[in-house]
Amino acid sequence: MSEANLRRLNQLLSKYQYRTVYSVVVEELEAVLSTSRRNTSTIMSKLCEAGWIDWFPSVGRSKASTLMVKVSLQEAICSVLQPEIASGHFGSVSKLLSLYGATAVRALSQVTEKQNAWNEANNQLLITRYPWVDTIDPAKTYRIAELQVIKSVYDTLLIQDQQGRLLPGIAHAWETEDNDVTLWIRRNIRRHDGEFLTVEDVIASLERLVIESGPVSYLFSQIASISQLSAHSLCIRLKAQNPLFLHALAVPHASIVTRDVRHYGDGRQAFVGTGPFCIEAWDDDKLVLNIHPAYFRQSALLDRITLSHQGGELSEYLGQQSQDDGIKETYTLQSFSYLTARFRKDAEILPEYLEQLIDYIAAKRNVVDGGNVVSGLSFSAPSDSAPPAGLKLKGKLILTEPRWTIPHLAQLAQWLHGVIRETGLELEVIELTDISNPSLMKDRADVLFLEEVMELPHEYGVYEWMLASSGLRFLYAEPESWRQHQRLVDEAVSLQSPADAFVKIEQDLLASRQYLPLFFGKEEILNVCQVRGIQVTKTGYSDFHKLWIDGE
Predict the structure, then answer these.
(1) Helix (H) or strand (E) holding 21
(2) Which of 310, 348, 378, 536 could share a disulfide with 529, CB 3.0–4.6 Å?
(3) Cβ proximity of 399 and 427 under 8 Å
(4) 219 has a pLDDT exceeding 70
C-alpha cells in the first residue's frame, strides 16, 4: 500500500509543487491521477491519512477543493523505508531504487544515516545480509555463520585467549589425572529463562554431545562416562588419555545447552542457554538477539543485535559508497581453502586425469596468488615451482562447494572454475547445501572446495580438523575408510609428539592427490561500514562476537 501511495504522490508532484496551496476541481485531480472520481476520493483520503497531503474537498461538482502537498517524494520514500530499515526488513528497497532512481538513493542514504545515529544512541546494531541461519544447535552445525551466533547465545566450560591458552568459563577450575577430567562449575549462573544452571544441566549437555551424530561427534565419542561428584562438580572419564581434549571443551561445538527449548517463528526452536545474548525473535528473514541482563561475566556492550538475512540492495549501495572512499583493509585469518577429491567408480573423469588436475591446480595457485599460497596445515609457504605447462584432459568433473557469502571466496571459486575448464574438462558445479553433512555428496561429486577455520592452539586445530573437517568427511565418506582414518588420528594423539604424527598423516594425504591446500583465508573490511548502528555485509569469518563483547 505504501508503494501505491508513493506512485500516486509522484503523480501529484508532477503537477503541483509541494508546500504550495492550490485550488483544484475534482475533474483536474481525476486527470492527474488517471482514474475515476470515486477512486480519486479514495486515493486522496489515503494520502491524507499518510500525512503527505492536506486536502479539503469541496461539496458539489466543479467546485474547487484546497490541496497542499506537504512532503517531497524523497521525504515520502524516507517514511516508507525507515520502518523497514529499523526492523531489518528490506523488501521494498530494490523496487524503490528501480522506480525512483537517484531520489530513492538519496532517501536510502538519509534513512540509514538517521538509523545509524539512533542505533548507536540506543546500543543497538543491525547487520545486513547476514548469512542464513538454519540451526544454532552446537552439536549439529559446522557453518561459521551459525557458530558465531552460538558463541553469543551459549557458553562453554572453558574458553581460550588469542594464544589458545585455556581460561575459566562455566567451569571456574579443572584438573586432569590419567583419563579423568574434573571440573568445578560456577555457582549462581542464570540461564536465559531466569533459572540457575545446574551441574545436571551441564552433564546432560555433555552426554548429548556423546550420543548425537554430527560434524564433531568423534571429538566427544572418546568420553567413556560422566559422573556428578557434588552439587557443583563433575568428572569426565576418557577412554584413553588425550592431552588435547580440554581444548575441545572450549570450542563452540561444546557449548552448554539446557534441556529446555524455546520456540520461534516458522517452526524454529533453540535450547535455552546462558550466554551474553538470548534469542528474542527468529524467522526466515532475521534473527534478533537481546542482551542477557543477568550474565555471569562482563555484560555485552550492546543491548540488541538484529542479523538480517536480507538487504542485498542496501549492502550493494553502501558497499559501492565504501569502495568510492577507497578505505579497505585486508586481514589474514586462521583459516585456509583446500580441495578434497574422491575417486568414484561412476565418475566421468578417469582417476589418473583427476590426479593430473590436482597437480595442475597446485602449480597454478602460485601464479594467481603466490604470496597467499599455503602448503598445508602447518600454514608454511610452499617452495617455488616452475610455471605449469598446458594440460589437456577429457571427461567431466563435478565440483561441489558452498554458497559463497564472502566476496574473495566467490572470486577464488571463479578462478578455480576457470583453471579446471582451461584443461578441456567439462565442469558441473553443485551447491553443497549442508556443509555439516558433506557425505551426502559422496556419490554425486568428484571434488569438494571450501574454506575452514583452524582453531587455536595450532596443535589442537590440526587435531580437530582431522576429525571434524567437512573436506575429510567428504573424502572418507565410507564408514570403513573413516574408521581407519580415525584410528590413525587416535594413534597420533597418544604419542609423545602428536604434531609429528599429524604431519605424516597429512603428507600421505598430499601424496594421494586427494587433498590440496590452496590459500590462506582473508577478509576485506570496508571501514566506513564497520561497527556502526548499521553494519553492512558482515559476512566474513572475523568473530563478530568481539564487536559487542568487551575484552577481559
Answers:
(1) strand 21-24
(2) 536
(3) yes
(4) yes
DSSP string across 409-474 = HHHHHHHHHHHHHTTT-EEEEEE-S-TT-GGGGTTT-SEEEEEEEPPSSHHHHHHHHHHH-HHHHH
Range 533-547 burial, b when 16+ CB lie within 10 A, else e: bbbbbbbbbbebbeb
Taking the C-alpha atoms of residue 100 and residue 394, their distance in angstroms, rounded to an integer, is 51
| Boundaries of every domain in the chain | 1-71, 144-310, 327-525
d(CA 113, CA 134): 31
Residue 457: asked if its preceding bond is cis (omega within 30°), the reply is: yes
Decide if 255 contacts 271 (C-beta within 8 A). Answer: no
Cell 500516486, residue located: 8
Query: What pLDDT shows up at residue 64?
Result: 85
In this predicted structure, what is the pLDDT of residue 551?
40
> Does the CA dihedral 405-410-413-414 come out positive or negative?
positive
Query: Is the model's pLDDT at 328 over the cut of 60?
Result: no
The answer to whether 417 and 364 have CB atoms below 8 angstroms apart is no
Beta bridge partners of 68: 21, 54
550: CB partners within 8 A, 6+ apart: 298, 300, 301
For residues 469 and 450, the answer to whether their CB atoms sit within 8 Å is: no
Query: 327-525 in CATH: which number?
Result: 3.10.105.10
pLDDT at 357: 96
Q: What is the distance between the alpha carbons of residues 383 and 366, in angstroms, rounded to a whole number?
A: 10
Could you please report the per-residue DSSP string of 142-182? --HHHHHHHHHH-B-SEEE-TT--EEESSEEEEEEETTEEE
Fold of 1-71: Arc Repressor Mutant, subunit A (1.10.10)
User: Which residues partner with 262 through β-bridges?
Assistant: 270
Work out the number of other CB atoms within 10 angstroms of the CB of residue 342. 22
Q: Which helix (H) or strand (E) covers residue 269, if one does?
A: strand 269-271
Angle between helices 458-468 and 498-511 (to 10 degrees): 50
Q: What is the mean pLDDT of residues 199-215?
A: 94
Three cell numbers at 390? 598446458
Q: What is the pLDDT of residues 294-320, one digit of tens each?
A: 999 988 878 888 887 765 555 555 444
DSSP-assigned letter for residue 51: T
Q: Which triple of cell numbers denotes residue 61?
A: 461538482
CATH class of 144-310: alpha beta
C-alpha cell at 323: 569502495
Residue corresponding to grid cell 588469542: 162
Distance CA 289, CA 280 (A): 6
HEC secondary structure over 341-386: ECCCCCCCCCHHHHHHHHHHHHHHHHHHHHHHECCCCCCCCCCCCC
pLDDT at 37 over 90: no
- Record the cell numbers describing residue 423, joined without a space: 584443461
Average pLDDT (418-446) is 94
CA distance 226 to 134: 30
